[in-house]
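hi! just following up on the protien thing from before. the input was this:
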Amino acid sequence: MSDYDYDLFTIGAGSGGVRASRMSAAHGARVAVAEERYMGGTCVNVGCIPKKLFAYAGHYAEDFEDAHGFGWTAGKPSFDWPTLVANKDKEIARLNGIYERLLTGAGVTVFKSRARVVDAHTVEIEGRRLSARHILVATGGWPVVPNIPGKDLAITSNEAFHLARLPKRVVVVGGGYIALEFASIFRGLGVDTVLSYRGDCLLKVFDSDLGTFLGAEMAKKGVRICLRSHIVSIERRGDNLVCGLSDGATIETDAVMYATGRNPNTTGLGLERAGVDLAANGAVIVDDRFQTNVASVHAIGDVIHKVQLTPVALAEGMVVADRLFGQGRRTLDYRHVATAVFSQPNVGTVGLSEAQARHEYADIVIYKSTFTALKHRLSGRNELTLMKLVVDKATDRVLGVHMVGAEAGEIIQGFAVALTCGATKAQLDATIGIHPTAAEELVTMREPVAG
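and the predicted 3d structure came back as:
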């Protein structure tokens, strides 16, 4: 008989926490999960799922316009923001229920309360203390707004999903995933949108061609992009917000949304008192097995501030469950993690950027193609698609695949499998493409670019 109340106590019922808990229970462990906010965490409630639903909504205006070139005529379309929000909320509620049933169906005890770590084997919840052989921290992250005058007037992605009304004008601050996605969403829904970013290039962690190309395409769609610029103050003047910029200029708007980063959600969790080492930003420091310096405490997902993607958190959860209660054979390689940005147009990427490849390999070859998708030959839209391959010249192995264009995420997913299997450029060349598709371009590029 165990001396502990539970074999595993998980704090946080997001994607990673739920997966680790469910799989641990399947191995026969006695598991409990505590969640103080909402089942499914960031992804389900204020992240991937509602964001993708909003991205679909933001694309319909162009779809209606594009239809004219194909012979369709319809009345002037109209958009109702409350309908979108209400329908999104129904879907989120459905998913909340599914996540809870996944846990209870696996025999996991669920606490809908805040838990706090007391020591290496103890958590405090609902006024009592429970013991656990292992504690798993999976509390995710939280948006950060810089400490500037008027910061309380700004919103983040958390609030953007629940706005009572759609603003007529918005300033989105940031140059990463969330900023570009929401700038595209707002513009697609007819909002006068400004994107303000203090850096020189959007999507700075990706291949540099992607951010440059995407910025140009978003500008075509009416997003005003201000690089090397940042807001130093926000002031309310009547019904308007006035943003003071670093160069002395001002922007008048109805809403300011910050998407400049997320910090690990560890404040007040008790980890420091339990002796767990944290990084300066609050991230839980773990080894490659997701174990902290306190042997019984583990952490996964956004709270460790590594690769902040839902599928990565799921994979990390599987590693922990297998290591603690299974065969312990699972490992995780971050090198070929594919990802997508659901901007307009989409971005998809897997593997090394050109800059990373040049740093790691003696000689690389770049293949690149920019073209107009067949659809837009009739729609008349001036949107372009970019595809790029990064190849190691010595081995012919494909190191990176990058794309900006419609359904980039759907296309890149398959190439992520290819890279994981060690595909070479010769193997791509030997693959017969599906015609007519945009994806076939990735297996028909034959001439490398100069340099």
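The CA atoms of residues 103 and 343 lie 33 Å apart.
The chain has three domains: 6-143+263-325, 151-260, 345-443.
cheers
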